[in-house]
Amino acid sequence: MTANVAVETTPEIPLWNDPSHPVSTRVDALIGAMTLQEKIAQLYGVWVGASADGGEVAPHQHDMEEAVELDDLLPSGLGQLTRPFGTAPVDPALGALSLLRTQTRITAANRFGIPAVAHEECLAGFAAWGATAYPVPLSWGATFDPDAVRRMAAAIGRDMRAVGVHQGLAPVLDVVRDARWGRVEETIGEDPYLVGTIGTAYVQGLESAGIVATLKHFVGYSASRAGRNLAPSSVGPRERADVLLPPFEMAIREGGARSVMHAYTDIDGVPSAADESLLTGLLRDTWGFDGTVVADYFGIAFLKTLHGVAGDFADAAGAALKAGVDIELPTVKTFGAPLVEAVTEGRVPESLIDRALRRVLTQKAELGLLDPDWSPVPPAFDGADLDDPEALRGKIDLDGPENRQLAREIAEKAVVLLRNDGTLPLDRPRRIALVGPNATEASAVLGCYSFPQHVGVKYPEVPVGIELPDLRESLTAEFPDAEITVVRGTGVDDGDRSGIAEAVDTARDADVVVVALGDRAGLFGRGTSGEGCDAESLELPGAQKELLDALLDSGTPVVTVLLAGRPYALGRAVEDAAAIVQSFFPGVSGTRAIAGVLSGRTNPSGRLPVSVPRTSGSQPTTYLGPRLAQASEVSNIDPTPAFGFGHGLTYTTFAWSDLTVDTEEAPTDGEFTASLTVRNAGERSGTEVVQLYLHDPVASVVQPVQRLVGYARLDLEPGEERRVRVTVPADVASFTGRDGRRIVEPGELELRLAASSTDARLTTTVTLTGPAREADHTRRLHAEFAVE
């Protein structure tokens, strides 16, 4: 089936390749010249792995897909290449050469010379061998520093773009609803405003480097029952609208994200991949998104195999296209022969193909892939001799000094000091007992989507490719005069108790104990944190709690260090540990950042992006609970956290004072301005994070007791004080009313200027007046801070 239209061309340049014409004109001309098979070929990818010697990529085989023959596919074209760098360990230069040669083959094979979009994971850095492994997103949230995250994302994007990659599958904007979920480490936190602002900054950084940012998982994936991966989600329309959707809305409105990935889950029986009201009605018609919607891997096939809403793969393809999915990833399964047959038989209208194709080709045109001067040679090969692959080996550095410095900055800003009885910073200890399963485990700083943990573990014979000092090495460098004795005590999750007695004996002979506990990142049960590594409870894995309790009984001060992907209940340590230092898979510089906090070289400035539970069985709960979610006399389960969202200590003290408000009343379309003074009252420089929480005591629907609506980091020298002004628009008090519309209601509000969700320092009451007002997708999203 071919739709032929008259196109204006020159003998040299077809209209679709001529950048002097508007993109829409070029795309329409190209669509009109394509056969059905050529159209559909642009709507799927093929999962490949780069060649270790620089040859063309080879199709990757997965137990959820059939074998793919590139020779059969390429004459019709190819929309995407899935993870050429992130499938096997390959020298970056040879991987780039492999991708270059493959793009040359793709463009030569199809009659329009259209290259593929190459996409990669970039959740904790570019997921390629030898690339910097940055802290995981939960650490981004702990920084409360969008600017630092924006700079990190730009660096990741530049590395990806330099080797020929076009699209990154990040950030994850799922809001944590149950910390037992294995993918908590991939999220930014449990508050939608924090997730939205940090995630938007990441999008801005990635997009500034020319990489298409992909928002995921749209929407509801993190709200699965019992924290199980890919489980049913019980989400009402109000929770979806007020908790789960705002980060996506912000990243589209303010971040300029050009792609969205649908979630695996269904909400109230409708899978996201087949939800037209979500992917078209809300995303495009309301929010104005004009980019591409890509499938989560195998997500379209899941409409048949998991959800049971499609009778065959053709029905699944048609349902996804109708809903608004444009591209099948990671490989061709439903959008290939089944879709061709369905269109030919009239089961799926060709107009749906054209609609998706227009979005795909528009994005390719904007990336320059349709331009006559497009070249498969990436920027990293500028001036290189491409005929000698071995001479290229080692010529591309994806872990350079600038990357390392950014990774270190994020790691240092993300370390959270939860408790300190004055033991920290350590004052030249003579004997340190370093205990625990993560004391000498270099990979303890890495998340599930870092290349070494995601892919490298399958290739144990290949070096890890990056420098990963373990905690012993970093403490030795930090405390060169100390005698450091290392005892494992127990494993992360093996339940081995045989080393606990030795650990206690070693502790008794030391001046201080540093016990390194936490997780091992992995996939689908190979770890204690990561995709498919869900937890039955929030007790420390294995025998770690027993080790910790035994050390607390040793009589020696115990500094508890967590290298983890989620928060854990710490039992007695909350009151009995000398100090508790929390880090969330802090990346290549993570152990150095922790050592710097222990020595005092770094003044900790991280704040909790998720609450730390007091008991292991109190989930699911977050600080966003309404009044019924708080402790009460009618339940024996107390969900009060040990350390609340936003909590974090420093080695100095801050005084908050002089709160003023410009007016105590404002209309429902108005704003308030509050000002306060923050002074560093201690003897060393430090960082305070001023957090603004909104409390709405009376509303037409149940509201959380408080929610974050703004924050600002302040770096202050000893004795320095700054005046902080915050403008609070009435729009930030909006919520979804009983009729499903977002509204701002009149009434009293409490503004809490706080050091955390459990530590309000200054409060004031203001009143909104006038009629209730609808607040749509053009509303103001931020309480704006200004530091004077």
Automatic annotation (TrEMBL):
The keyword Manganese does not apply. One of its GO terms (molecular function) is hydrolase activity. Keywords: Hydrolase. Residues 688-757 form the Fibronectin type III-like domain. Gene3D superfamilies: Glycoside hydrolase family 3 C-terminal domain (3.40.50.1700), Glycoside hydrolase, family 3, N-terminal domain (3.20.20.300), Immunoglobulins (2.60.40.10). Pfam families: Fn3-like, Glyco_hydro_3, Glyco_hydro_3_C. Belongs to the glycosyl hydrolase 3 family. This is Glycoside hydrolase family 3 N-terminal domain-containing protein. It comes from Streptomyces althioticus subsp. attaecolombicae.
